[in-house]
Design brief:
With about 160 residues, this protein is an alpha+beta fold. The chain has a single domain, classed as Jelly Rolls (Sandwich), CATH 2.60.120. It is built from 4 helices and 8 strands. It is globular and about 55 Å long.
């Protein structure tokens, strides 16, 4: 029985590594580095309409969409939830949660049945401590993603703001 579990775990780790290769966050990692990261990942599935986390929840993990579509929703001043981003396979979300201790800035909800990987803040801290080069590479990847998101948000915001005189 244990051998089957080991085989299943080994196959799952290989599957996770194959998934990680497709994420820009991990594109600078190679071979054994990907294996180390895969050891710290968890796999989840979620049904259509299910909420992964709500705006204001404690955040302590980043998610990587393997299959499906995740809607990111933000509450408006009127209290309505507005979809601010639609994340298909190959996208990540919740990056800020492994860098700071602030509550979630938005809600994540499955548009369709979806699967994803998570990397917890604790696992990321372990990688940073035990494998600093891998941790630095991941930090650079997160910085790149957050920078891209900020640029997109700034561009969208510019369409709604009047010029300062």
């Amino acid at each position: 029985m244990k051998k089957n579990n080991a085989i299943r775990e080994n196959k799952m780790r290989k599957d996770i590594i194959n998934y990680l290769i497709d994420f820009p966050l991990f594109d600078a990692l190679k071979g054994n580095q990907l294996n180390i990261v895969a050891e710290h990942m968890n796999y989840y599935e979620i049904d259509k309409g299910e909420i992964l986390f709500k705006e204001g929840d404690k955040g302590d993990y980043i998610c990587f969409v393997l299959d499906g579509v995740i809607d990111v929703l933000k509450k408006s001043v009127t209290g309505d939830s507005i979809v601010i981003s639609v994340l298909p396979k190959g996208r990540s979300f919740g990056e800020m949660s492994i860098l700071d201790n602030f509550p979630r800035s938005a809600t994540a909800k499955a548009r369709i049945k979806s699967s994803f990987l998570t990397l917890t803040q604790t696992s990321f801290d372990t990688i940073l401590k035990d494998y600093p080069q891998i941790g630095i590479t991941i930090l650079k990847g997160i910085s790149r993603i957050l920078s891209q998101n900020l640029r997109q948000t700034s561009s969208r915001l510019a369409d709604y703001i009047l010029p300062i005189a």
